[in-house]
Specification:
7% helix, 269 residues, four-stranded antiparallel sheet, three-stranded antiparallel sheet
Amino acid sequence: MQRKPRFPWQIASVSLLLLTLFSYVAWAAPASVTLVGDLQSELGCPGDWQPECAATHLTEMGNDVWRGEFTVPAGNWEYKNALDDAWTESYPAANKALSVAADTAVRFYFDDKTKAVVDSVNDAVPVAAGSFQSELGCAGDWQPECVNSLLTDADGDGVYSFVTTAVPAGAYEFKVAMDEGWAVSYPASNVPVTVPADGDQVTITWDSATTDVTVDVTTAGPGYSVALVGDLQTEVGCTADWDPACAASELGFDAEDDVWQAVFAIPAG
C-alpha cells in the first residue's frame, strides 16, 4: 500500500523554496574580481594574465560595483576583468587597451549588474550623487566618490545609465558628478526625483554627447510574469492544468531580493 505524505503542502513549499535558492545561486555575485592583463607583473603579481593574483583584486564597494586603483607604468597595455579567480567568466569579450604616457594612478571599475568594464583613462566615470546615496550603502549623501551609484555605458552608445529598485519611497535630489568629484557635474541645478513606492525602479541617464541628464521612475517589477504550471494547477484554482496563462498559479515578485516566490496548498498526490 502506498503511503501518502503527511503534509503534502509542505513538499510543494519546499520545492518552490529550492527553486528560489537555485535562482540565487545562478545569479550570485562574484566572490572576487581581478584586474588581469599584461600589466599584472608591474603591479605586484608573479606573472601576467593571472586571475588568481590577489594583488590586483578589485574591492567590492556595494550595489554590485567593484573598484581598484593602481599606479600603471608608462606604456601600452591590455587588460580585462576575471571573476572568482578563474577564467570561467571574464569581461569584456576582447581585451581592453590602456595607454599611459607616464606612470599614472588609474582607477578601474567593474559593474556586475551590467558587466561594464571601466577605467579612468579610457572612460567617463559619472556617478549619481544625491540625497538617496545613503540608502544605497554609501556613508552619506552627496558623495561623488561613492561609486555605488555609478552610471555605465554597457552598449557603447555614449548614454550612461544607473538603474536601481533600492531607493525607498520619498522625494530626493541629485546631480551626475564626474570622476568621483564635484569639479564637473551635470546639470547646473539639482534634479528632483520622487519615488512613489518602495521597490519602484529608478533609471538615471547621462548623455555624454549632450550632457543631458534624465530620470525615469517605473512601477516595481521586471516586466514579465512567472507561473507554476503542471497537473496540479486545477488544485490551486486554475480552470485547467498545464496552463501558463493562469493567474491563480503565478508567483509574486519580491523587488527587494529579486526573487519570484509563492506558497500553495497542494493536496496529497
